[in-house]
Amino acid sequence: MLKRLNGFKRRYRWPIKWVVLGVTLLLVCYPYPHLFLRHLQRWGNPNALIDADAPCLAPLVTEFHGEIGDTGTPREVFKSVERYVAKRIRYAFDWDTWGVVDYLPTVDEVLARGCEDCDGRAVVAASLMRNLGYRAELVTDFTHVWVKTDHGEYMGPRPGKAVVVTDRGLQVNWGWELLSCFSEAIAYGVAVFPMGREGIVLLVAWLMLIGPRTGRRAALAAGLLLLAGWLLLRPGGHTAWAPIRWMQFLAVALLLAGVVAGMWPTAPKDEC
Fold first, then answer.
1. Could you give the C-alpha distances from 60 to 105, 122, 127, 155, 246, in angstroms and in order?
2. Which residue from 141, 152, 261 is spatially nearest to 210, judged by alpha carbons?
3. What is the DSSP annotation of 122-142?
4. What digits encode the pLDDT tens for the residues 3-60?
5. 20 to 30 Å CA-CA from 114: which of 14, 26, 174, 176?
6. Inter-CA distances, 131 with 61, 85, 89, 106, Å
């Protein structure tokens, strides 16, 4: 199949290869496409998922009042909510819960599963805070989602605020901070995503790089460089709060070198 694909002229070959790689990436990250579409729609206004009056939230409100109570200063109440949600909602990555790389759930979905990652926990915590009569909204830096209130930030806030979620939707803070947060999110995502799924993408990417004029040695070198960059990127971004920058930069350099090696013509020209 690859030999047949490389028989196409360049102007047809590369668009087809990009489509193949894109479809592979989509199916690996979202084997359930309807969840991907729902996820994108919800990120248009994540605060709409905060539901202080959700019927499924009522038992949590009763339990919270009984076990912890809502008396004290707002900061004390929010800290109590933070601890309660962390205990009540077990942390689990979205591919374990939903089978996809990322999914923004409703309060009903989180409580039905009983486990979620940072965004699901934040949605429940913000809903509980609003039920108690406080203002709460979501904040994200692409790597993590937490809750912002008039009395501080909770659910593991991070320093970056590339995207602030308001009642009008997403407010993107363009500039270096956005680029930095996005690169950290990619590195962290690669670091914690199942290796088997990533291996499929890496293999397809390598095959798509190989052209009709790529020699065997160049193809082998490209594969080894891509593999080395990938294996170095995972530990470099494994801890979102303390990424290993030099390891990430070296990993990116190796990946780029792999791309160049795969695309560099080393065999005699045999096409027009």
1. 17, 15, 11, 17, 44
2. 261
3. HHHHHHHHHHTT--EEEEE-S
4. 777 777 878 888 998 999 999 999 999 999 999 999 999 988 889 999 999 999 999 9
5. 26
6. 8, 14, 18, 16
**Residue 26: CB partners within 8 Å, gap ≥ 6?**
33, 36
| Residues sharing a CB contact under 8 Å with residue 20, sequence separation 6 or more, in sequence order | 204, 208
d(CA 214, CA 217): 8
Residue with tokens 């979102």: 240
Domains along the chain with CATH numbers: 2-30+180-263 (no CATH), 33-173 (3.10.620)
Q: How far is the C-alpha of 214 from the C-alpha of 271, rounded, in Å? A: 13
Q: Read off the pLDDT of residues 197-254 as tens digits, 9 standing for 90 and up.
A: 999 999 999 999 888 888 888 999 999 999 999 999 888 877 766 778 888 889 989 9
Tell me the one-letter amino acid at 205: A
> Which residue is associated with the tokens 């193809």?
219
Scan for tokens 């009008």, then name that residue.
Answer: 168
